[in-house]
TrEMBL record, chain A:
The keyword Transport applies. Pfam families: BPD_transp_1 (PF00528), BPD_transp_1_N (PF19300). It is found in: Cell membrane. The lineage of its organism: Bacteria, Pseudomonadati, Pseudomonadota, Alphaproteobacteria, Hyphomicrobiales. This is ABC transporter permease. Coiled coil: none annotated. The chain crosses the membrane at residues 12-31, 100-118, 130-158, 178-198, 233-252, 258-278, 290-314. Gene3D superfamilies: MetI-like. InterPro entries: BPD_transp_1_N, MetI-like, MetI-like_sf. It is a multi-pass membrane protein.
UniProtKB/TrEMBL annotation, chain B:
Its main location: membrane. SUPFAM superfamilies: MetI-like. It comes from Neorhizobium petrolearium. It is a multi-pass membrane protein. Keywords: Cell membrane, Membrane, Transmembrane, Transmembrane helix, Transport. The chain crosses the membrane at residues 28-47, 100-124, 131-153, 265-286. This is ABC transporter permease.
TrEMBL record, chain C:
This is ABC transporter ATP-binding protein. The keyword ATP-binding applies. It is found in: Cell inner membrane. It comes from Neorhizobium petrolearium. InterPro entries: AAA+_ATPase, ABC_Ni/Peptide_Import, ABC_transporter-like_ATP-bd, ABC_transporter-like_CS, Oligopep_ABC_C, P-loop_NTPase.
From TrEMBL, chain D:
It comes from Neorhizobium petrolearium. SUPFAM superfamilies: P-loop containing nucleoside triphosphate hydrolases (SSF52540). The lineage of its organism: Bacteria, Pseudomonadati, Pseudomonadota, Alphaproteobacteria, Hyphomicrobiales. It is found in: Cell inner membrane. Coiled coil: none annotated. Gene3D superfamilies: P-loop containing nucleotide triphosphate hydrolases (3.40.50.300). InterPro entries: AAA+_ATPase (IPR003593), ABC_transp_ATP-bind (IPR050319), ABC_transporter-like_ATP-bd (IPR003439), ABC_transporter-like_CS (IPR017871), Oligopep_ABC_C (IPR013563), P-loop_NTPase (IPR027417). Residues 22-264 form the ABC transporter domain. Belongs to the ABC transporter superfamily. Its main location: membrane. PANTHER family: D,D-DIPEPTIDE TRANSPORT ATP-BINDING PROTEIN DDPF-RELATED, TRANSPORT ATP-BINDING PROTEIN. This is ATP-binding cassette domain-containing protein. It is a peripheral membrane protein. Keywords: ATP-binding, Nucleotide-binding, Transport.
Length: 324, 300, 323, 344, 501
């Protein structure tokens, strides 16, 4: 166990190091942060002052070493734009994104799995056709377009739901979240749908495929021969067998939803990290981009770690250390 | 004996696929649509009344004309024009070409790369697995936008760079998906049997394990093509995609979507519909392929 | 004695792309209460499919196309799915042929056993578990309590088979269809299982259809034996009769193919030729191409002859004199 | 003569390593422990060219595992396997490849060893094609002829495994192994699922191949009748160890080990109808916790104190007949009557 | 009444001196005040300073407004002003500091509570325009306060029309009315500023009633919004000039080719005739009508009418293809040459579209347009500053009362020491113009200064240093019961909004 954790940990450090290096070089290649930060009528003297104060006058490798040294001491640098520790900027906005992402994910799973099962159990029926056709809409149009349509339909024309911002927050068990107020929920619905439409389709399709592939297997037949109810066969025998691809995808998608909530957050003016990220990239606010990536990559590492554990829980054949 | 053998010659994999598609009318339609669209994309330049990429033939005087309008030089814009005075029909055919190219090509390359790496990771395990999977973690963490922007800055603008960026961000998804499926498959006895028969590792990976990992892969793959097309659109929407003078379907949609509300619907809606039809038919065919490829389901 | 299971003119066909495959073709038989019936025959002759047909578990594209399956007088083919479910596992249990594929690899043995108990009886989990453990013990799984929580792939082939048998025994059903249940077991375990099965069958008044290739086991266990060939039952009768004085040439061919029939090391005597492909069976007696006694008349379908507790389909049966 | 394949003191352990989840659980005091199964426990076994060695034994006693190890599919965890006198671990490159092909295994569980997405023609034909045994165009004929030899109709070649009956699948497995022209065949319950006629046909085929090409067999089976018929030597295993080895005549006429005796007693034959089974009593030991001393002692009617503590070693009883039982140990024979438990 | 304002930009900090960029100032101007402020046409108005006198070329006396109170009730004193102006140059890590604004101060002294005496390092005629725009904070509060103290509101104590209530970065900022405000009483009790960066979403938010007023209305939506009853648009042509910069200083230019796309070893853009020709090939009005939906005024110089320095005699160059072709022929490019136009695509509305339209027009004029390359601003500026482009589109927003700053930064010869030409990306150099600018900026007499600036403008634009395209119109839109003062400086602030009569 310890060996394993240490190994993963060292690997992760390497990954994070590489991430930081790529970002440093990448941002350097993209452009000059000064150009983005400075006011349009700044004098050369002001410019020089800013460059020195942000440490951008030093060679890149030196900037990197300074960063790495500070990072080792738990300091991921201060945002050029906000002059605040980039990590606190990220953690300040992470809850909003988590809330959105998790809601979207739950939405995708809670709706996607039953629909997928339904359509997999009754292949080629009208229900199946309807579900499968419907699910295509979920991913055939770019999500910015879908988001705009949601706003147009539900906010502008029907006036049912608010279209921007995060809404009121409530507190429950010490967690502040907009999930706990009606107003907050109302604000959450549209962006969560927007974010989850693609995943929803994916979950539906994966579930359906899994069901279709699993149903003809002998153990399902044996389960029937044991007189199990169809419900148990579907929800235990079939479902557990299709969990592996589902878990993989959910793990992947949870991460990617987090990482790519950018579009949704921009359109719905959701105060999350996606928005912060795109702004930071566009303004070349390197410390924030680096810190963000370190956080997200760590998150991916963690999610994949959990997914690996789940694999071995779900399918006992995986990761069976058989040799001594 | 030989006569009997040859009577089953049509029963090749390809034959199966064709038969399988032919048996489902809606898939036939979808396949035909796919082929038509593919054809249109390939011979596009010969079909369109205008070369929408040639600035010299565009005229802003013709911009934002509604469908059916007549241009200054007598041409009818059946689907209207965009903000630059491009004939929407021509722009869509050209855009289809780009979108299909970007979506399918990046999807396929990412699929191949991801699949190979995922299989290798699952099969060999240990350090190789760790290395590949950590790279996957890293790639998954990198936002498409940042990757695209870096490539744009490093390599400049262009179709191939966008494709490259999309490959870079997509392969990891495939790798992870394949690995998870292959982890289960590699422990199955048929793999052992193949090893016993002295079949080389690449062959086992590709010829034995992979086919059994295909179902989720095809689902993700067909979806990913759609995803790549919209990702390209999103990149273009964010201004880091294709050259603006050579709009893809996604870019057309992105350019037009702000105008939806002001009544100039055609700039966004028609390319949107085309994209929908395209993705729809690709997925129909993909779904059917998956069923046909499964011997237990195909036999019907 | 009223039979507990009566199958009448059962035909199960697979509608494949290359034509109709008649896996079970007009099969009729009856199993009495407490009766142990052995079902032997050519591999691929439709034994397993017959079993699946009884339980209504034929996979598409297969379908029971005609016939009746009367279980205690009730036609199973007419039952609603819900009613059928109360019969499966509870009143009729089946042990599948391929032990690895029948157990769900991702569920522990305990789960798979407990769910079977709870599917039919309202009992607590703990009680279901206790029953499962006892059943495992019954089929000779060592330290059953511990093994209960293992997963199928951690068992050897024979152990998996025993688990499947244990699952079938959980409800003490009226009828067990056992599809080659002891093929993977060594004789000591086999003896133990046969012993238990026989005891349980007597004790709980179970009837048994025992599908097997091992004529020795069938001889030892069964009261009656049925011989299948190419989708049809070609001979049936008391064990003593069929295995000592076979009427049908296929049966006699089988008997002379066992290793014990020739001296050690000598070539064995298989029945010459191949079974016809089930897709293109010739009309008439399917065995005629391989039969030394075949004549012109064998090109027509032989009728079922019933005489002195023996049934067979042959124009040229062996009789004591002829054997 | 050097044996074709030889196991020297071979062991194979399966340790079920704890996975992360369990390890994490352990941090919270779940107390899960690593379990080790000694599937094969210090076995010596030599198979000479052209010989047919039968391997019988209880289910789960490690026959398949030993077969796998000897066929070079599974590495041994202890001891050494020699192929033509050379340790398997020392083989490299071409030598290794040719050894690999020369030792083929017919697996016990036919369905799971057949790739569900491959057709029979590919299942059987792939290996000979990639190894250049036949050329692309001839594959179908080659496969068809193999199929015929194992009694499969050539019209089945384009089907998928799930479309076959159990016995048919087993025959596909046999044809597949034969397709690469091996020298050693490890037949793991290869004929158990076959009806006796096909079984006879396959056994004849095996014997023909032995005669024609000097094929060597390690024949794992529960069916003592078959074993008796075709084997030159029979090895009896119990819980990972070899307990007896002799020629079939010796073994069947004069079994020395109580387990062998039980096996032979329980062998059902067609002649024996409606018999009363008398299973061996006693707890069947678990390979996870093998009993100390002689593994068989908990079920042995003749067990005595020494059996519970001391592992019996293989001793020669007659020429070519060895067994591992304290009863056959002359030094112990005096005490045996004294301490033997009353047979139950 | 309350106001909910949807804003495209958001501040990076509440500290008013942290960054001089517009997004921060928009917020700062509601909470804090400056010594002077500008009206809609960028004319200087007294704010915290009521009067200022130029005692001698190096000495200024500034009189503060009486009775001004900070939000915490303390009165504004000269000390606070001196503190603020000192603080302005050493805000740590400020990305856009005010240090330039206070660079000319040599010393400061409070003559009394309400009067300050400034000494400058050298004669500085526009002294008030420099220091006047620095926000005044309260010494007692701001001394030693960190950026977090401002963000949390602890130090966000100003004299402005609104009090700071809360800020949720990325989401909203809440203000309440300051009833003790020295100026005009505000109409709104509470103001919520929602940050909605996406244009379409912002418009949708207005249309769905989620916000009352929005800024940066996309030109394409103006007509639609005007057509919706209950909504109203407020527009003005801003002082932001959009121009096409030409690589006119170098002998070879990277994206200039011959007709066949092969690099040209001459740079036609060096020739003023060519530059004039290019300018005349552009149909500015057509671009404005078709691409920008009318949201611009054609430009022929840096600042529009109304801003000091504008020379009414310079009209926007008229579209004249024939003359342009003639000029090209005279310059020796009868058959044209190849050119690539670079542009940003996220900097101002329609930037990429305009570039394409320019491409079309050049192509029609006989040039070979090799491409129109649009890049995000961050990538684009780097290339533009590094001289990687030949013809590229940029904008310059003028937020000072005269054109002096703009002219100095954009067109004077680049010189670090002198602080001139900091945005002169094409390294244009015109010594005569430089000299005229130097005289103009040294002139204390305001009227004369403007005249000198006009003269310099006239002289330099005759040389076509850049091709001015248009001044962008900016729009705000709101509910019909609101009023908003559309302003050239593009400020979005609740102080500019009110209830319509
Ligand atoms: N899913 C299927 N599709 C097509 N044919 C099938 C299918 N399942 C079984 N068959 C065919 O049906 C016939 C009867 O099969 P069945 O499994 O009943 O044989 P069996 O008598 O049990 O043989 P064995 O003793 O070898 O198990 C075989 O010819 C087999 O090929
Ligand atoms: N992959 C594995 N992981 C853990 N234990 C295993 C594994 N494979 C086999 N075993 C264990 O090793 C022992 C020997 O198994 P093996 O398959 O060799 O038995 P066998 O003699 O072939 O039995 P059978 O006659 O039932 O096939 C069994 O106890 C089994 O549980
Ligand atoms: Mg069967
Ligand atoms: Mg085995």
């Amino acid at each position: 166990m310890t060996v394993f954790v240490i190994r993963r940990f060292l690997q992760s450090i390497a990954v994070l190091l590489v991430t930081a290096i790529i970002v440093f070089i990448g941002i350097y290649a993209i452009g000059d942060p000064i150009e983005m930060l400075i006011s349009p009528d700044a004098s050369p003297a002001e410019r020089a002052q800013v460059i020195t104060s942000l440490g951008l006058d030093k060679p890149l490798w030196q900037q990197f070493l300074t960063f790495a040294w500070n990072a080792l001491h738990g300091d991921l640098g201060r945002s050029f734009v906000f002059n605040r520790p980039s990590i606190s900027l990220i953690f300040e906005r992470l809850p909003a994104t988590l809330e959105l992402t998790l809601t979207g994910l739950v939405f995708a799973l809670v709706l996607g799995i039953p629909l997928g099962l339904l359509s997999g159990l009754k292949p080629n029926s009208a229900t199946d056709e309807a579900i499968m056709t419907g699910s295509i809409f979920g991913f055939s149009l770019p999500s910015f377009w879908q988001g705009m349509m949601l706003i147009m339909i539900f906010s502008v024309w029907l006036g049912w739901l608010p279209s921007t911002g995060r809404g009121q927050m409530g507190e429950f068990l010490g967690i502040r979240s907009s999930l706990f107020t009606l107003d907050g929920l109302a604000h959450l619905i549209l962006p969560a749908i927007n974010l989850s439409l693609f995943k929803l389709s994916l979950v539906i399709r994966l579930t359906r495929t899994g069901v279709r592939e699993t149903l003809p297997l002998d153990f399902v037949k044996f389960a029937r021969a044991k007189g199990l109810s169809e419900k148990r066969i579907v929800f235990v025998h079939v479902f557990k067998s299709i969990l592996i691809p589902l878990i993989t995808v959910v793990g992947l998608e949870l991460g990617s939803m987090l990482a790519f909530a950018v579009v949704t957050e921009t359109i719905f003016a959701w105060p999350g990290i996606g928005k912060l990220l795109i702004d930071s990239i566009m303004r070349l606010d390197r410390p924030v981009v680096v810190a963000y990536l370190l956080v997200i990559v760590s998150l991916f590492i963690f999610i994949n770690f959990v997914v690996d554990i789940l694999y071995s829980l779900v399918d006992p054949r995986v990761r069976l250390g058989d040799a001594q | 004996m030989n006569a009997r053998v040859s009577s089953f010659r049509d029963d090749t994999l390809f034959g199966r696929l064709v038969m399988g598609i032919a048996e489902s009318p809606k898939t036939v339609i979808a396949a035909i649509v796919c082929i038509i669209l593919l054809f249109a994309a390939i011979v596009g330049p010969y079909l369109t009344p205008q070369d929408p990429y040639d600035l010299a033939v565009l005229d802003i005087l013709d911009s934002k004309l509604p469908p059916g309008s007549e241009s200054m030089d007598g041409l009818i814009y059946w689907l209207g024009t965009d903000g630059q005075g491009r004939d929407m029909f021509s722009a869509m055919i050209y855009g289809l070409r780009t979108s299909l190219g970007v979506g399918v090509f990046s999807g396929v390359v990412a699929l191949v790369v991801g699949t190979v790496l995922g299989l290798i990771a699952a099969y060999f395990g240990g350090r190789i697995d760790a290395l590949i999977m950590r790279i996957v973690d890293l790639m998954l963490g990198f936002p498409t936008i940042l990757v695209a922007l870096m490539l744009l800055a490093l390599l400049g603008q262009g179709l191939w760079k966008v494709i490259f960026a999309l490959i870079l961000v997509q392969w990891a998804t495939f790798a992870r998906a394949v690995r998870s499926a292959a982890l289960v498959e590699k422990n199955k006895d048929y793999v052992e049997a193949a090893v016993t028969l002295g079949i080389s590792t690449p062959r086992i990976l590709i010829g034995h394990i992979l086919p059994n990992c295909l179902p989720p892969l095809i689902v993700i793959g067909t979806l990913q093509v759609a995803h790549a097309i919209s990702a390209e659109a999103t990149l273009s929407f964010l201004g880091i995609g294709l050259p603006i003078t050579e709009p893809s379907l996604g870019l057309l949609i992105a350019n037009g979507y702000q105008l939806l509300m002001s009544g100039e619907y055609w700039i966004s809606v028609y390319p949107g519909l085309l994209l929908l039809v395209l993705v729809f038919s690709i997925n129909m065919v993909g779904d059917r392929l998956r069923e046909v490829l499964n011997p237990r389901l195909g036999e019907r | 004695m009223t039979p507990i299971l009566e199958v009448k003119n059962l035909s199960t066909h697979f509608m494949t792309r290359r034509g109709v495959l008649k896996a079970v073709d007009d099969v009729s038989f009856a199993v009495g209460q407490r009766e142990i019936v052995g079902l032997v025959g050519e591999s691929g002759s439709g034994k397993s499919i017959t079993g699946f047909s009884v339980l209504g578990l034929v996979d598409p594209p297969g379908r029971v196309v005609s016939g009746q399956i009367l279980f205690k007088g009730e036609d199973l083919l007419k039952l609603s799915p819900a009613a059928m479910r109360t019969i499966r596992g509870k009143r009729i249990a089946m042990i599948f042929q391929d032990p690895m594929m029948t157990l769900n690899p991702v569920l522990s043995v305990a789960t798979q056993m407990i769910e079977t108990v709870q599917a039919h009886d309202r009992v607590s989990r703990a009680e279901a578990r206790a029953r499962s453990r006892d059943a495992l013990g019954l089929v000779g799984i060592p330290s059953p309590e511990e093994r209960l929580d293992a997963y199928p792939h951690q068992f050897s082939g024979g152990m998996r088979q025993r688990v499947a048998i244990a699952i079938a025994l959980l409800h003490r059903p009226d009828l067990i269809i056992a599809d080659e249940p002891t093929t993977a077991l060594d004789v000591t375990i086999q003896s133990q299982i046969l012993f238990e099965i026989k005891r349980l069958a007597a004790e709980f008044a179970m009837a048994l259809i025992w599908i097997s290739h091992d004529l020795g086991v069938v001889a030892a266990l069964a009261d009656r034996v049925m011989v299948m060939y190419a989708g049809k039952i070609v001979e049936a009768g008391q064990v003593d009769g069929v295995l000592t004085e076979p009427r049908h040439p296929y049966t006699s061919g089988l008997l002379s193919a066992v290793p014990a029939a020739v001296p050690r090391g000598e070539p064995l005597r298989p029945i010459p030729g191949f079974a016809p492909s089930p897709l293109s069976r010739p009309s008439g007696c399917a065995f005629r191409d391989r039969c030394g006694r075949a004549t012109e008349i064998c090109a027509t379908e032989p009728m079922l002859e019933v005489a002195a507790g023996r049934e067979f389909r042959c124009f040229h049966p062996h009789f004591r004199s002829a054997a | 003569m050097t044996p074709l394949v030889e196991a020297i003191d071979v062991s194979r352990r399966f340790s079920r390593k704890l996975d992360y989840a369990e390890k994490i659980a352990n941090l919270f005091g779940a107390g899960l422990e690593e379990k080790t199964v000694h599937a094969v426990d210090e076995v010596d076994l030599a198979v000479h060219p052209g010989e047919v060695v039968g391997l019988v034994g209880e289910s789960g006693c490690g026959k398949s595992t030993l077969g796998r190890v000897m066929a070079g599919i599974m590495p041994a965890s202890g001891g050494e396997v020699r192929w033509n006198g050379k340790p398997l671990t020392s083989l490299e490159g071409e030598e290794k490849r040719s050894m690999r092909l020369s030792a083929q295994m017919i697996f016990q569980d036919p369905m799971s060893t057949l790739n569900p997405r491959k057709r029979v023609i590919d299942l059987i034909g792939e290996a000979p094609r990639v190894h250049g045994i036949v050329k692309g165009r001839e594959v179908r004929d080659y496969v068809a002829s193999l199929a015929e030899r194992v009694g499969l109709d050539a019209s089945y070649l384009d089907r998928y495994p799930h479309q076959f009956s159990g016995g048919q699948r087993q025959r596909i497995g046999i044809a597949r192994a034969l397709a690469v022209k091996p020298k050693l065949l490890v037949c793991d319950e290869s004929v158990a699922a076959l009806d006796v006629s096909i079984q006879a046909q396959i056994l004849n085929l095996f014997m023909d191949l032995k005669r024609e090409f000097g094929l060597t067999y390690l024949f794992i089976s529960h069916d003592l009748g078959v074993v008796k018929h075709i084997c030159d030597r029979v090895v009896v295993m119990y819980l990972g160890r070899v307990v007896e080895s002799a020629t079939p005549d010796e073994l069947f006429d004069d079994p020395k080990h109580p387990y062998t005796q039980a096996l032979i007693r329980e062998l059902p034959t067609v002649a024996d109808r409606h018999r009363i089974f008398t299973p061996i009593k006693g707890e069947i030991p678990s390979p996870l916790h093998p009993p100390p001393g002689c593994h068989f002692h908990p079920r042995c009617p003749k067990a005595f104190d020494r059996c519970r503590v001391e592992r019996p070693v293989l001793k020669q009883n007659a020429v070519g007949h060895v067994s591992a039982c304290h009863l056959n140990d002359p030094t112990a024979s005096e005490t045996k009557n004294v301490t033997a438990e009353p047979a139950n | 009444a309350d106001l909910v304002l949807g804003s495209a930009t958001e501040p990076s900090a509440i500290d008013p001196q942290f960054s001089r960029t517009g997004n921060n100032q928009n917020i700062a101007m509601q909470i804090f005040d400056r010594l002077v402020q500008t009206d809609a046409a960028i004319n200087v108005e007294p704010a915290l300073a009521v009067s200022w006198t130029n005692v001698d070329p190096l000495t200024w006396h500034v009189k503060l407004r009486e009775g001004v109170k900070f939000h915490d009730g303390n009165p504004l004193t000269a000390e606070d002003v001196i503190f603020s102006l000192t603080r302005a140059k050493d805000i740590p890590n400020s990305p856009a500091p005010f240090s330039g604004n206070v660079a000319s101060i040599d010393s400061m002294k409070a003559l009394d509570n309400q009067t300050i005496e400034f000494k400058t390092k050298k004669p500085t005629p526009d002294f008030m325009e420099q220091i006047g725009f620095v926000y005044i904070v309260e010494k007692k509060v701001a001394e030693g306060a960190s950026i977090e103290d401002f963000n949390s509101g602890k130090a966000a104590i100003g004299t402005g029309a609104y009090r700071f209530k809360s800020w949720t970065p990325g989401d909203n900022l809440v203000l309440t009315r300051n009833d003790d405000f020295w100026g005009k009483k505000q109409d709104f009790d509470n103001v919520t500023i929602k940050f909605i960066s996406n244009d379409a979403s912002r418009v949708a938010a207005l249309r769905s009633g989620a916000v009352d007023l929005i800024d940066a209305v996309p030109p394409g939506d103006v007509k639609t919004i005007e057509g919706i009853s209950g909504l109203k648009v407020f527009s003005i042509a801003s002082a932001r000039m959009i121009y096409l910069a030409l690589d006119s200083a170098r002998d070879k230019s990277p994206f200039i080719t011959d007709k066949d796309g092969k690099p040209l070893d001459k740079n036609p853009l060096k020739d003023v005739k060519v530059r004039t020709a290019l300018s005349e090939l552009i149909n500015r009005q057509l671009i404005i009508d078709r691409i920008l939906d009318g949201s611009a005024e054609p430009a022929g110089q840096l600042v529009p009418t109304g801003v000091a320095g504008n020379d009414p005699s310079i009209a926007a160059p008229a579209f004249n293809a024939d003359n342009a072709k003639k000029l090209l022929a005279e310059a020796g490019y009868k058959d044209g040459f190849g050119i690539t136009i670079h542009t940003s695509n996220d900097r101002f509305p329609g930037d990429a579209e305009v570039a394409q339209a320019l491409g079309q027009m050049f192509a029609r004029g006989g040039l070979k347009v090799n491409g129109v390359v649009a890049q995000p601003y961050n990538v684009y500026t780097k290339g533009a500053s590094a001289g990687e482009f030949s013809a590229f589109i940029f904008s310059l927003g003028n937020s000072t009362p005269t054109s002096a700053t703009g002219l100095r930064n954009l067109l004077m010869t680049a010189n670090k020491e002198a602080g001139t030409g900091s945005f002169n990306r094409v390294k244009y150099s015109n010594p005569a113009f430089d000299e005229m600018m130097r005289t103009a900026t040294a002139e204390f007499d305001a009227k004369k200064r403007v005249e000198l600036l006009q003269k310099a403008t006239k002289a330099v634009f005759a040389d076509v240093p850049v091709i001015p395209l248009y001044w962008q119109k900016v729009h705000w839109a709101g509910k019909a019961n609101l009023s908003y003062i559309a302003n050239m400086t593009e400020d979005t602030s609740a102080t500019l909004a009110g209830l319509a009569e």
